[in-house]
Amino acid sequence: MIHFSNVSKTYPHDHQALDNVSLTLKSGEMAFLTGHSGAGKSTLLKLVMLIERPTSGQIMLNRQNLESLSRRQIPKLRRDVSMIFQNPHLLPDRSVFENVALPLTITGFRHPEIKRRVSAALDKVGLLHKEKALPVELSSGEQQRVGIARAIVNKPKVILADEPTGNLDPGLSMEIIRLFEAFSAVGVTMLIATHDLALIAPLNHRIITLKEGRILGGADDDE
After folding, report:
1. Is the distance from CB of 160 to CB of 180 less than 8 angstroms?
2. Is 184 exposed, middle or buried (0-12, 13-18, 19+ CB in 10 A)?
3. For residues 193 and 146, what is the distance between their CA atoms, to the nearest angstrom?
4. How much is the average pLDDT of 90-115?
5. 183-213: per-residue pLDDT in tens?
6. What is the pLDDT of residue 38?
7. What is the DSSP string of 143-201?
8. In 3D, which of 103, 95, 107 has the Cα closest to residue 152?
9. For residues 1 and 29, which has the higher predicted lDDT (pLDDT)?
């Protein structure tokens, strides 16, 4: 599903965020991306989303070369790939329902389909009963689950998560991880960047480790 081949990313002033990275994730696989702050985790995720472009190397997503996509083709790609952040960035003046519906509204879905998809997404994260609430009325864990509902409402094939449990206590963090496992079980490819080794070490998922832009281990699932 995701394949990096000798990918490097250099920012201005010769700051090399990624250095000759090669890795493969299979369809429906769930893997964690770890490393120190500045190791290149966020850059790697941004390359998959085409928020950034690689300096060199090739990235394939579902057998499509991302380098061949024009700017006009990027919105279509992002219907299949969703990203979850440490801060869910909910709109404070919109209800939970309206926040989750936003990607569908932008895409032009009709209201009956929006209602069906948003209700299903909120049900999956256990927040259907909060659909009329404003973000300020929610706990931090609930806000993060709303962000997850928004990410899955388009039924993406790939979900990328950048420190999604960074603001949560261990109990809530594990709840989020179990949600991700449920998505992976139905075929969604999950790549989750985290610094919380204590959280992920006991889990039976591949751990890809970055250091100074290079992969130290876990690039392939047979390593």
Report:
1. no
2. middle
3. 19
4. 94
5. 999 999 999 999 888 899 889 899 999 999 9
6. 86
7. HHHHHHHHHHTT--SEEEEESTTTTS-HHHHHHHHHHHHHHHHTT-EEEEE-S-HHHHT
8. 103
9. 29
Nearest alpha carbon to residue 137 among 96, 87, 86: 96
- Sorted by sequence, the CB contacts under 8 Å of residue 205 that are 6+ apart come out as 30, 31, 32
- Backbone phi, then psi, for 137, in 5-degree steps? -85, 0
Instruction: Determine how many CB atoms are found less than 10 A away from the CB of residue 44.
Output: 30
Residues composing the chain: 223
- 128 vs 26: CA distance, rounded Å: 31
pLDDT in tens, 5-31: 999 999 988 889 999 999 999 999 999
| Burial class of residue 117 in the structure, from the number of CB atoms within 10 Å of its CB (0-12 exposed, 13-18 middle, 19+ buried) | buried
- Pairing, β 30-34 against β 214-217: unpaired
Residues with Cβ < 8 Å from 218, sequence gap 6 or more?
23, 31, 206, 207, 208, 209
H or E stretch covering 94:
none
Q: What is the CATH number of domain 2-217?
A: 3.40.50.300
- Using the structure block, give the residue that is written with the tokens 């960047």: 193
Contact between 176 and 165 under an 8 Å Cβ cutoff? The reply is yes
pLDDT for position 104: 92
